Amino acid sequence: MRTQQWLAGIAIFLTMGVILLGAYTRLTDAGLGCPDWPGCYGFLKVPELQHHITAAEQAFPERPVVAHKAWNEMVHRYFAGSLGLLIAAIFFSSIFSKHSGKVIPSVLLALVVFQAALGMWTVTLNLLPLVVMGHLLGGFSILSLLAVHWLKLHPEYRVFEPKLISLQPFALLVIAILICQIALGGWTAANYAALACIELPVCEQGWLQRLNVSEAFSLHLGHDDYEYGVMSAEARQTVHVFHRFGAVITLLVLASFLLQVWRRATSSTLKRLTLAAALLLLLQFSLGVLNVVLHLPLANAVAHNFVAANLLMLLVLIYMQLRHSNTNVGKETL
To answer: 130: Cβ–Cβ under 8 A, 6 or more apart, which residues?
Structure first.
């Protein structure tokens, strides 16, 4: 049991590192820093010797070696590969354990394998936006599932809050809204629309007349290369505007939910979770505004991605606490 707990805790922090590195790789335009997969120009690491670089550029003449971008990509792959091995260890450890569930480790293993496939397709399909967005959601899902797995391995942190059982459907709605907003953010980033609007509160003058919803949410299949985007300026502005409106809706709905949880909760554990989620919500909204005002500074944009992942994880944990209360309410009344 203790081994399972340690593996889950380490995997959570490693997943956070992979998410940070993935955002940094994408935002430094290094997603195609290595044009092949899983190696880099046919090597296990970035080619550094001149004859290796020459061979690499002969094999991939359309992608000259840019060392810093290639290293950004490979470091991300090394960490992602390590996470995959760790999740495999969690799965096999659960198989031989009598004290832990096997469903979540099995789902985690399947998800990390699919996530690896998405990583491969990100490269082989030259940053197809649908795949890039899916890769982002996959990473966030792994983090949230690992947190649920950790909670199940630590029964001492589960709470019983019968007054909050009625909020369980609201919690599911909140999680669904946040996932949609994260997907919109991923779509915005994958289509290079983060700087399509650089004025507040919505966009540049005349934005309403320039909306192009059909192109903005088309899959744009069939292009040879999606690096730096294939959408028109109008479509990118439309994606950006939808993401901004989504941010306001997400802020209001999540704030309403967290306020209700805070008022009704009696356990210090749930109150701390709620407070942490509220602080992350405000921080996330502020980082989004700063992305516009400061024209997408790298550190701020990476933080915006990272905070979203952690906010989703906390909301999932809050939902699991409400679900635990619902499961045990019958036992309490017996």
So the answer is: 190, 219
CA dist., res. 61 & res. 56, Å (int): 8
The SS3 assignment for 40 reads: strand
Place of tokens 């919803």: 213
DSSP class of residue 43 equals B
Determine whether 73 is an active site residue.
yes
Rounded to the nearest 10 degrees, what angle do helices 129-153 and 168-190 cross at?
140
Band (pLDDT 50/70/90 cuts) for residue 333 is very low
Closest listed residue to residue 250, CA positions, set 321, 183, 322, 165: 183
User: DSSP string covering 65-89, please?
Assistant: --HHHHHHHHHHHHHHHHHHHHHHH
Return the closest-CA partner of residue 71 out of 41, 35, 33.
33
Sign of the C-alpha dihedral computed for residues 55, 60, 66 and 67 taken in this order: negative
pLDDT, tens digit (0-9, with 9 covering 90-100), for 104-137 = 999 999 999 999 999 999 999 999 999 999 999 9
Nearest 5°: CA angle at 116, between 114 and 117?
A: 65
Rounded to whole angstroms, the Cα distance separating 74 from 41 reads 11
What pLDDT is recorded for position 276?
98
Catalytic residue among 48, 73, 199, 215: 73
Report the Cα 28 to chain-centroid distance in Å: 17
Q: What is the pLDDT of residues 48-69, one digit of tens each?
A: 999 999 999 999 999 999 999 9
DSSP state for residue 295 in the 8-state scheme:
T
d(CA 53, CA 264): 62
Q: What residues are paired with 40 via a beta bridge?
A: 43
* Helix ranges (DSSP H) in the chain: 2-27, 50-59, 67-95, 103-124, 129-153, 168-190, 213-216, 233-264, 268-293, 298-333
